[in-house]
Amino acid sequence: MIPPSPLCxxxxxxxxxxxxxxxxxxxxxxxxxxxRRFGAEFTLCEVMLDQFVIAVSKRKSRLxxxxxxxxxxxxxxxxxxxxxxxxxxxxLIGEGFDLIDLNFACPVKKVLGRGRGGFLLNHPETAxxxxxxxxxxxPDSVPLTIKLRKGFDDSCDSRDKFFEIxxxxxxxxxxxxxxxxxxxxxxxxxxxxxxxxKSVKRHLCERNRSEIAVIGSGDLFTPEICLKRFTESGxxxxxxARGTIGNPWxxxxxxxxxxxxxxxxxxxxxxxxxVLAEHFRLAVELYGEHRAATTMRAFGVxxxxxxxxxxxxxxxxxxxxxASDWYHVLDLYVSQANLQNKRKIPDNFVFCxx
Length: 354
Prior knowledge:
The protein is an alpha/beta fold. The protein folds into two domains: 7-258, TIM Barrel; 269-335, Non-ribosomal Peptide Synthetase Peptidyl Carrier Protein, Chain A, CATH 1.10.1200. The protein has helices spanning 29-37, 50-55, 82-95, 109-113, 124-137, 156-172, 194-206, 223-233, 249-258, 269-287, 289-295, 297-303, 310-318, 323-335; strands at residues 7-9, 12-14, 18-20, 43-44, 48-49, 73-78, 99-104, 144-149, 176-180, 213-217, 237-240. The strands form two sheets. Strands 3, 4, 5, 6, 7, 8, 9, 10 and 11 form a nine-stranded parallel β-sheet that branches. The protein has a two-stranded antiparallel ribbon with strand order 1-2.
C-alpha cells in the first residue's frame, strides 16, 4: 500500500494524516502528549468557549501546552458572536496555538440553547459572519478550519444550509473542514454517514477546490475501520475522537495499517499499566496530585475497557480520590488477571470507546 499523502492545513504539513480531535473534558495537555507518543502529529485542545478564553487567567490549564513537545496544536473555539470569536482567537494565537478551529457542530442541548455549536448550522448567515471576522483579523500564516456535522437534521433545507456554510467558508479563506457524519439531532445515536463525508470531498473537487482538506469523523474505533473509511471516502485525513480515550494505541495501529504493515500486537497489561502511570504523571505535573486524581478517573474508566476484568477495575477507578488511591489501582490493574503480565487482549477484541 502506498503511504498516504500529508495532510495540509495552510502552512502546516502533517505527514501522518490522522489527528487527535478536540474532546470536551478530555483532550487536555496530558492526553495530547500521550496521543503524540503513539504517533499523532497534530492535536486539538478541548473545545473552549470564546468568553472563557477572553476572561481566563493566562495559566489556566486548558490554555497550557508545552513549548517543546505539544506542537503543532490547534485550539477549537465555540460561541455565537463574531467579535468575541475574534478576541478569543487573537488571544489563543498570542498564547502560541498553531491553528484555530471554529466549532459549528456541538450537539449538546445546553450549547444549542445558547445559540452555539451545532445551532449555527441552521443559521448560515451568522456562521459566515464569524468565519469572515476571524479570518480577516487573523495573521495569514495561521490556518483557520471549521468543524461541521452533516446538518442540523436530515431535511433537504438542512443539507442546503450545510453546503452554504461550507462553500462560503471556503470562499472566505478556511483551509480545511472536519465533517462528522451525523446530524445535530442525532447527537451520537445511529451511525456516522461516511457516504455523506465522501460527497463533501467530491463536491469540493467539483468546485476546483481540492486543496481544501476534508477530515472525516465518526465511529472511528478500530484501526481496521479507520483504514476502510480513509481509503473508501477519499478524505484527506481522519479525526479520532472517542475511540482514543483510554486507547492511545489506536494511533500506532492505524499508522501501521496505513503504511501497509501488520497491526502491532495489543499491549500487555504491564504495558497498559506503564502508559496509565505516565498519563497520570503528566496530569500531576499539570494539575497537582489532588486534582489529577479526580480528573484522571474518567480516563481510568476508559483505559480499563482494554482490561479482561473491566468491571472490577472500573469500580476501583471510580473510587479514586487521592494519588495513593491511583497507584493502588495501577498495581491492581496488572495483578488481578495476569501476575506474570503475559496475557494480551484477544485479537478479536473491539474497543468501542462508549
